[in-house]
Amino acid sequence: MESVNLSPTDYMIVYGVVIGLLLIYFLRGFKQKQPMKLRMSADKQLPEADAVTGSDFDVKDLSVHFNYNGHSWEAYEALGLPAGSNWESVERAFKKAKATMDAESKPFIEAAYQAIKKHSN
Fold first, then answer.
1. What pLDDT score was predicted for residue 37?
2. Residues 7-29, buried b or exposed e (16+ Cβ, 10 A)?
């Protein structure tokens, strides 16, 4: 068998063709697709919204915001709790935070606790 000697120019041409074909292959696959269409039947409609509340469902706001030192804060987050935590968790977190906080931070924690307490009544 005879060996073929290719010059550096021949290698560049072969590599250029291979890279060009790969580019065409990959770029052809990235066509912009049509957005998905919703198929909604006319017989399935959403319930009518209540004129007063804006919904047929009972909606409970889980977050409690309060103002402290000119800024708005989320009370559950200030106590390190997920929004809407039960009252026992709030009291436990408040007592723990109050015991571990320095004197400067205690009014902030107290304000968060009072906001949750006011909101839960």
1. 73
2. eeeeeeeeeeeeeeeeeeeeeee
Question: Into how many domains does the chain fold?
Answer: 1
**Structure tokens given for 94:** 């408040």
Whether residue 32 lies inside any domain: the answer is no
Domain span holding position 116: 65-120
Contact 78, 108 (CB under 8 A): yes
Q: Is residue 90 part of a domain?
A: yes
Query: 95 in a domain, yes or no?
Result: yes
pLDDT per residue over 54-74, tens digit each?
Answer: 555 555 667 888 888 888 989
| AA letter at 107 | P
CATH code where residue 84 lies:
1.10.287
CA distance 76 to 82: 6
Cα 112 from Cα 110, distance rounded (Å): 5
